[in-house]
Inverse folding.
């Protein structure tokens, strides 16, 4: 992973939400390997602790913080724990998310509220709290929102999820506009289909695992969490010093247009 070796975020303090598994864990590990001190946040300490132990056992600096990102008091407490431990916050990666597959006519008010509480309110609250700390420090910072290509194009059975991702995209632009005067850059990374355990329903996961999503991506495979980390290191570094309010799609080319995989017997 070449970008982790150049030290562009060495010594900085990064907060990563949803860091126990999947994309969040991959980002936290990559940041630590790049020399950052990492505050790993998750609602479930039982899954977060092994992830943080793996980072610290490798000789890197990391802190485990349990918090529900949709709860303002817990968010404020998590930010304070980060500052108490490492003295500052330079980077925030909003990654904690909730994904459910349900027909639009079956989405209850409770499910709709839960989706937006985690995916939108959580991003808003953590960005707000981290930005206050960055403004107080007076030297700028970087906020990175992990969104989805579902912010760009809707899909059946996840209309509520797609709507929440569209809101995340607008939060990215809005925070970028208002925080620019403080030299705080705000960008989004929008993954396509990535192997992860965000889907809690084993029946839905079984269906997803049976679909060859790679067939719909010109690069010919599903993404992995490690495919996301290079962009997150870049956007957090001074190499991206003139980039804010942007969304970077990482989808194997799936959103480039309609793609028909070449038949096995088609001429080259």
């Amino acid at each position: 992973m070449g970008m982790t070796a150049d030290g562009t975020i060495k010594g900085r303090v990064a907060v990563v939400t949803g860091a126990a598994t999947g994309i969040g864990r991959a980002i936290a590990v990559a940041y630590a390997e790049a020399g950052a001190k990492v505050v790993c946040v998750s609602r479930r300490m039982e899954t977060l602790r092994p992830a943080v132990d793996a980072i610290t056992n490798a000789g890197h600096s990391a802190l485990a913080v349990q918090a529900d990102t949709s709860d303002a008091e817990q968010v404020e407490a998590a930010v304070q724990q980060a500052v108490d431990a490492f003295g500052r916050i330079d980077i925030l990666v909003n990654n904690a998310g909730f994904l459910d597959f349900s027909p639009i006519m079956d989405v209850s008010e409770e499910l709709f509220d839960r989706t937006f509480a985690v995916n939108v309110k959580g991003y808003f609250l953590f960005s707000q709290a981290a930005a206050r700390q960055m403004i107080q420090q007076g030297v700028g910072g970087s906020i990175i929102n992990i969104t989805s290509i579902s912010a760009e194009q809707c899909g059946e059975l996840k209309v509520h999820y797609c709507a929440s991702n569209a809101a995340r995209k607008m939060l990215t632009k809005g925070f970028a506009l208002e925080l620019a005067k403080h030299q705080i850059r705000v960008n989004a990374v929008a993954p396509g289909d990535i192997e992860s355990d965000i889907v809690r329903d084993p029946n839905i996961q079984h269906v997803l695992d049976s679909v060859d999503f790679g067939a719909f991506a010109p690069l010919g495979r599903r993404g992995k969490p490690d495919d996301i980390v290079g962009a997150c290191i870049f956007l957090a570094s001074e190499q991206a010093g003139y980039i804010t309010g942007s969304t970077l799609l990482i989808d194997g080319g799936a959103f480039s247009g309609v793609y028909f995989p070449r038949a096995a017997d088609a001429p080259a």
Notes: The two ends are 32 Å apart (CA to CA).
